[in-house]
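User: Hello! My lab partner asked me to get a predicted holo structure for this protein. The small molecule is S-adenosylmethionine, SMILES included with the sequence. Please write out the structure tokens.
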Amino acid sequence: MNPATGRKTLFLGDWKGFTGVSWARDKQIGLLLMEHNDRFDQLEPFWKDIQGWAVAETFHVWRYLLRKQREFSLSGHSMEIGSFMGKCSSILAADIDLYRKERLILIDPNIRTQELRSAHGLAGLDSDEAISFYEISSQRISKEELSLKRGDVRWIHIDGEHTGSAVSNDLDIAHELTMDGGIVVLDDFFSVAYPQITFSAVRYLDRYPDRFVPLLIAYGKLYLSRPKPAFWLKQHIAIQLAPELEKAGYTCTLCKTTHSEDLDCLSIKPGGFYQGIMGPDWSDSTIELARSFNMQQLHELADKANKVL
Ligand SMILES: C[S@@+](CC[C@H](N)C(=O)[O-])C[C@H]1O[C@@H](n2cnc3c(N)ncnc32)[C@H](O)[C@@H]1O
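Assistant: Hello! Below are the structure tokens for the protein in complex with S-adenosylmethionine.
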């Protein structure tokens, strides 16, 4: 519902020239989402019992983004630096496609094989061939040791050593391996207990702006993508992720509180706010994302929007 007009439409407007696009949020946009994947459904009721720190909402954010990667026809390995008991890697396990020879790659100086096997088993991934354990610090591993090359990996979760230098080392690994369309997740972003993580990541992104761009900050994690697919992903996240979380029972607010030239990154905060979105102070029901459109693309977007409403 557009609060200004009372119309229940997704509107394209407020763009300056052709540099921005705005959405009024509507829950029915969630209808665009693809059908549920069985192995996620299988894992979900047991996931809360796996020891670890990720909150329940993260399960749904990952499930959503992993599905987006499939919509983008991505196939590749998934990886985690710092696997502990497998809470987060079990979500990745639910999405490993054995027919495409995808692997789950886990790096941790203390691999808890038994706990990890049982967590991945809950996600229906029992094949040892599909999981590679590296019992070593991420600061001591080489690409050769991993037998991977650039572009082999579609998802990396960085949750190992919580020092600034480890974060920049792990982002380097992510850069070495991630494909176009790949997603890199950094844990404990904005954590008061680990300020070095945030400072190190921001310094890294400033130093190498062509490597990764921020997509989303949600539930203590920063989500990065390669620059090329970033708009496509943000556009989908902006209209679909909050309804997806609400469908799963979590009230949240999608935030984009500044103009895109300032920072083009979405965030999700727990709890409700006016219409479920929080735009800039000067236009709080507007979500603006940077992108140039030609007329044809604008018409296609408007058609698509009208079809689902
Ligand atoms: C916060 S826990 C990870 C939690 C886990 N990702 C989950 O989903 O519950 C941090 C893990 O990082 C591992 N770790 C510590 N230093 C590391 C390093 N240099 N390289 C890789 N892993 C490391 C620890 O052994 C520990 O298992």
